[in-house]
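Record type: monomer structure entry
Structure origin: computed from sequence
Chain ID: A
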Amino acid sequence: MRSETITVRTGNSPVVHDITAEAERFVASEQDGLLHVFVPHATAGLAIIETGAGSDDDLLTAIDDLLPAEDKWQHRHGSRGHGRDHVLPAWIPPYATLPVIAGRIALGTWQSICLVDPNGDNPIRQVRFSFLPG
């Protein structure tokens, strides 16, 4: 198994950040196997989603609808409504495992690997790539 951790600057507002290019670079010298992507944070997740056509903004809207940033959350440190950020990984998990075939991630035509970060209090995230040979 081979691993690498990258740093992603997500900024101070909710974001869907495409990390596909970094993942592709990581597996480029590999053959067949599995790419495991993990975000070691309690307030971020990973989604396989189309980007650039509005789906990334739609995902953020859906998160706001499902988990509104209100003061109703029991977990109450950080920005207003920050407790909802700690609930996010129950819906958008902090991991994804993807097939790699001949050094290429077997994504669908419009699929991208995205870091989903609703937490503006933590503008820097780590993402760990691990390759498991087949």
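Annotation 1: The domain at 2-133 is CATH 2.60.120.460 (Jelly Rolls).
Annotation 2: The first strand starts at residue 2 and ends at 9.
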